[in-house]
Each structure stands twice: as structure tokens, then as C-alpha cells.
Amino acid sequence: MDIQTLTFIIVGLTFALYIAIAVWSRAGSTNDFYVASGGVHPVMNGMATAADWMSAASFISMAGIISFAGYDGSVYLMGWTGGYVLLALCLAPYLRKFGKFTVPDFIGDRYYSQTARTIAVICAILISFTYIAGQMRGVGVVFSRFLEVEIATGVFIGAVIVFFYTVLGGMKGITYTQVAQYCVLAFAYLVPAIFISIYMTGHFLPQTGFGATIAEGVAGEGQYLLQRLDGLSEELGLAAYTSGVKSKIDVFAITAALMVGTAGLPHVIVRFFTVPKVRDARRSAGWALVFISVVYLTAPSIAAFAKVNLINTVNGPDLTGVKYEQAPSWIKTWEQTGLITWEDKNDDGRMFYSGDERNEMTVDRDIMVLANPEIADLPAWVVALVAAGGVAAALSTSAGLLLVISTSVSHDLLKRTLAPNITDRQELMWARIAAGLAIALSTWFGINPPGFVAQVVAFAFGLAAASFFPAIILGIFYKRMNSTGAIAGMVVGVLFTLAYIIYFKFMNPAANNAENWLFGISPEGIGTLGMLINFAVSYIVHKLTGDAPQATQDLVESIRYPKGAGVATSH
Amino acid sequence: MAFKSEELAKAYWRENIGLVLKLLAVWFLVSYGFGIILVDWLNQITFFGFKLGFWFAQQGSIITFVILIFIYIKRMAALDNKYEVHED
């Protein structure tokens, strides 16, 4: 059976599984989705959170970026896991005690202000939208490869599926579907990694494998894998793998923006509102990170293996280049998607990959994980499994985000703020219109991406870091913070960050280099500065306008200990 | 008021903040410290096939994060019990 048929079968089977679970778990709980998930064990909730959290960016793009960036790619590894420490220690238990469903609800009630609520809603939409644009690109990459179509067509097909999945399925709160999606995703990620690790180094665990020596029969045998990679990189004019080229301040800023942004993402925070107890909110965060780590500790090893394999396949073991006619089939199938190109500059009929003028290949980073099993010559079912994993990751996250966008527009913005008198039917209609618009816009960004999947997603984190994180932290740990201060901080923080990103990414991309950056911080890391500005502005404005009312201060006191946390209420 | 006195409420919060700050200090050290600021210095040390700084950036920090959260869960449960503000 060829890869394409197998892919259809395996992706089809996983879809059938998700739908079956959705139908089954829905039948058992006709009451409110939110409360229904309240009865879920923290381990299960952690697993579901992990599936919700790990998107196309984590699954498809991250290892690819690390593969090409080496040490510099560590920002994603540390950033997207370290945020859970902040979440568990500084946010989740208190927000759970507060007992509302959405982040705009917390901001609106804590800062006793409709303006604050509205600004929070706008930020939530902006963040979720940026995030979903990155997902669409990822979905497109998967579909374009396995249906053998252009990337634009792939994005379009993915968009249609995500739209129906969200609008018809309404998957939110159906925790068990996400548990299944996590299992598919993690299995699909680990299987090829273990295969490749055994083949390359003889180690069963990829995590120790990429620090081990290369096995017999593989080019460079007996050498440490990472040493070989550094050596190859030097010979080919690429940056050394285990040390980076980014400046320290930029690495620091990007890591911080991703960590703090993680703790400020509305669709992540929401998961901790719905567990039954404060203690469970803490435990859920811990378990979520355990399950996320399974994938994140594997990613850097996949990255290193894939890079070595890519160089071996394209340049050959003696580094003279492999004849194009002898190129393995995966190079040709990926060429059809336009994500790999070969241009025979020196007319020798051989491919060559390097970091200097000898280079004849362009390889899109987003394909590394998907192509990896083929590069390592693994059986066809493994290739198909990885496709199913990629689809699971992208769909679960996109669907969740679309629901955040549509409920923000229809519920938080229209029903709670602008038009309190609309009927339930109208509210639902607006939710669907919002979802449709969001997906249309994100499809456009998926076709014309301003960066690789993980980079687009990184902007969402910057915006979350610069808007929500300071407002929530101050709301919990500084009870005298007033509404004027928090509003001013959010507005200045998010506008600054957004302006910086738009200027360097869209208005003047030519100037997007370290010389023109503020303090040498790239647009990916600017959220860290935005966050500091937010904190500073909030504090100064608060000092000028006086303390929050006593009632609010008492409210803050009451969220600081677990006792008396009831079930989360809608409003 | 869940606490018997204002002093107890303050003491609970103080202990809570103390614990969080201690754990965040470790959080900062393994990621920003070992993985970024001191990375070149630590990279002079190799253990197995890894340069130590590189290992912290791509493996060690993540493992530490998981351990930190579970220490927090355990210590906070004990603290809640001590001040009798745990859930039923």
C-alpha cells in the first residue's frame, strides 16, 4: 500500500475515534459543558490541556526550527514549558478560586470596569487570532504533502475542515476527545523518534540518543552525534549547532516573552477555571507540563537527528553531493508542494546543501518533522501516523481558539457589553459569523505567512505577555492596584508590542535586523519589553490615581486561600 | 474570613510568597541562568555527548520545571492544612 492510501486510512480512523468519543461523552453529560469537565481527574485534565496546548507549531514546526537554528531554537523549548511554572505558581490557583470562566471576566470584575472588560476582550481576540493564523499554515503544510497539492490549496482544505469541525462539532469542554488527541499526537511523535534513535545511535531513548555516539554503519560512526553535527555545520558554512548566533539579550527576551505569554494565553488559562478544586488547578498544571514534556524533551533529539540525516541524504556520506536521479522519493514528493527546491547551480547533476554559495537546496523548516520518517527510511505506516498526529495537533488547537474568538465576540463583547438585548439565536449567529471571519482571515495569513509557523505563533505570546500577564499578576498580588492603572498598562503595553511587530514585519521588513531593533530585541521577543512597560505604566498611573476600593481589596484577599472555592459560575 | 485572625492570614500569605519566590529562583537559575546567561561557560564542561549549557537549554531546564511544580503542589497542600484553609 502506498503512503497516501495509508495516510487516508490512519487519519480517517483517528477522526472516527474523536467523533465517537465526542458523541459518547456528550450523551453522558447534557448539562453545561464547563461544569461537565469539572468532574475530570487532574491527570486527565492535564492530558487534555496538553493536547489543547500543543499545536501545529509544537508538533510540526518546532523541531524543524531547532533543526535549523540549533541552540537558538532552545527559546521555544524553555519558553513554552517554563510558562507552566508561572501558571501553576502565580495564576492558576487564584484564578480558580475567583471562579469565573473567561479572562475578560476576571479583568472586568477585578478592576470593576466595563472598559477594562472590553479592552481584555479585544486583546483576547487579537491574541487568539494571531495564534490561529499560525495554525492554518501548519494544517496547510500537512494537507499539501499528503494530498500532493500546492500549499495554498492545502491551507484552504484545512480551513474548510477546521470550520466544520468547530461550528458543527463544538468540541470545547469535551475533555475526553482531547485526551484521545493527546495520545495520538504523543504516539505519533515518539514512534519515529525512537526508531531513528535506535538506528542512528543504538539508544532506545531519543533524549539520551542525541548525546550518544553514532552507531555502526551510519556515516561518522563512533563520533558523538552532536560533535559530528557541529563539525558538519562548520564544513558546510552553517552556524555551529550547539551554540547560537542570536544575541544573548534577544534569546533572553524571546524566552521571557514565550514564558510569560504562555501564562497569559486566554485559551490556556480557561482550562484551570473549570477543575473542581483549587488543589486540582495546581495539580492539573503539573500534569499538563508532564505530558507536554514528553513531546518537548523529544523535539530537540528529532531536530538533531533530522539535521544529520538531511545532510547525509543530500550531500552523501563523503559530502560531494548525491546525484539527483538517485535522490530518494521523498525529495521529489516534497518538491511538488514547493517546500523543497533544488537548483543545479554548477550543472553537475548533484544536489548540495550548505550555508554558503555552494548551496543548491531550499528546505522549508516546517517539513522537517513530517519528512523525518521518510528521510530515515521508516515504514510507510510511521509516515502516515505522523500525518495523523500533525492533523490532531492542528485541529484541536484551532478549534479551541476559534471558539475563544467566537464566544469573545458574541458573548463577552456583544451580549455583555455592546448589545445586552440580543436573543440567544442572534448570539449564536454572531458566534458563527465571527468564526467564519476569523477563519477566512487566518486562511489568508496561512497562505501568505509573515514567518514560519512557530514564529507567527510567537507573536501571539508577545501580545499576551504585554497585555494580560501584568494585569492578572497585579490583580492577584497587588490588591491596591486600581482600574485606571491596569487599563493604561494594558493599552500601552499591547499597542507598543503590536506597533513594533507591525513595523518590522509588515511596514518595513528591510529594516528587520539587530542594528535597528530596540536594545537588540527582535519582534519575537519584544513582548518582554511590552510587559515591563505595562507593569511600569500601571504602577505609575495607580500612584497618581489612588487605591482600588475596599470591596475590591477584600475580594482579592479572598482569592488568596483555597477554602470555600465553589464550582465555577457563568456570571 | 477563613482565618482565625488577621495575623494568621498574613502569615499564610507570607509563607506562600516565600515558597513561590524560592521556587521561582530555581526556575530562573536553570533556564535564564544555566541555559542563557552562563551557557558559554557551562559549555566548556561536557558530560556524555552533551555540552552542559546546551543540555540545560534543551533538556535540563524542562525536567527541573516539572519537578518544581510538583514540589509546589506538595508544599502548598501542607501549608493549606497547617492554616486550615484547605478545601473539604
TrEMBL record, chain B:
This is DUF4212 domain-containing protein. It holds the Pfam family DUF4212. It comes from Pseudidiomarina terrestris. The chain crosses the membrane at residues 20-42, 54-73. It comes from the Bacteria. Residues 9-86 form the Sodium symporter small subunit domain. Keywords: Membrane, Transmembrane, Transmembrane helix. InterPro entries: Na_symporter_ssu.
